[in-house]
Amino acid sequence: MHAEMIFILLVTLVVAQVVLVEWKKRHYKSYSLVTLVGLWIIPLIISVRNEWLRFIFTWIIFTTITGIVMRKAIVKPISGTTPRLVYKWFYFIYKLSYALGIVGYIIMMMTFFGLNFVFNQAPHVWMDCGLMFVFYGLYYGVLGRDISEICADKMAAHIGYYTPQGMPTRNLEKNVCAVCGNQLLVGESEEGVLENTYKLSCEHVFHEFCIRGWCIVGKKQTCPYCKEKVDLQKIFCNPWEKPHVLYGQLLDWIRWLVAWQPFILLIVHGINWLLGLE
Q1: Hey, is 229 helix, strand or coil?
Q2: Cys bridge to 104: 52, 68, 134, 276, which one at CB 3.0-4.6 A?
Q3: 256, part of any domain
Q4: Nearby residues of 276 by Cβ (< 8 Å), 6 or more positions away
Q5: pTM of the model
Q6: Bridge partners of 128?
Q7: Which has the closest alpha carbon to 106: 98, 95, 118?
């Protein structure tokens, strides 16, 4: 009986993986939307069922603030200060997720080296704490990046200098940032008081914070106006700010683990129940 259950689990996992890969390849937008909804809702359902109050509390705070930010990003006409507000929030989430992950990793390494005994703490206490930090960092990091990608597309399209396909509806004027639509106060060769101005290889110029938000937070690697490939090596000197391929694969794995694995296991339990396997 156990052999049949393991066989059903393996077959279901393989079939589900093939279906998800084909779905993502053929209908990326619907796949991303359903995955985002699952990523956002399923952990809350599990937490409510198990009464994990800490996660419920942080989820409510994140959802409330993100909902307000998303509303500002989607509404038309868009305010001139909205893009910077949106990027600041998601850039904060991006930095916070990195910090939580690093703190969790350090705590786990300290546990492996036995430093917990110096503070008279059991190993499982520190390990649980480290894993909790890593989970919160990865979860809100993935969720924030996926939501910010939607907001980045909506904002840039509403401003008019960017469209996902085809030509923009507005011509980019000189000394205007195509991400936020505001004037550039300093030249690319001048040192700014609050932020600098960046020029891409395509000769288009942007606010430093806007282009960083576009590439890091919005996960875009092309010029917001002409869609030419962006040379990230010139923009991001800090290795933590470079969108690595391995990091993207890690985020895909987290999405699958949080959004789709519970649903797949539910299907497996349903099949076992129908076949009378326990």
Answers
A1: strand
A2: 134
A3: no
A4: none
A5: 0.73
A6: none
A7: 98
Place of tokens 């000769």: 203
Q: Across the chain, where does the E strand assignment appear?
A: 197-199, 205-207
Here the tokens at position 154 are 């909506």
Query: Which amino acid belongs to residue 109?
Result: M
244 contacts 219 by C-beta, under 8 angstroms: no
Token pair 């469209």 is found at: 163
Q: How far is CA 50 from CA 53, 75, 126, 257, in A?
A: 9, 36, 22, 18
Identity of residue 17:
Q
Distance CA 107, CA 223 (A): 39
* 174-215 pLDDT per residue, tens: 777 767 767 777 766 666 556 677 777 777 787 777 776 666
For residues 142 and 247, is the Cβ–Cβ distance under 8 A? no
Residues 100 and 178 in one domain: yes
Q: Are residues 30 and 152 in the same domain?
A: no
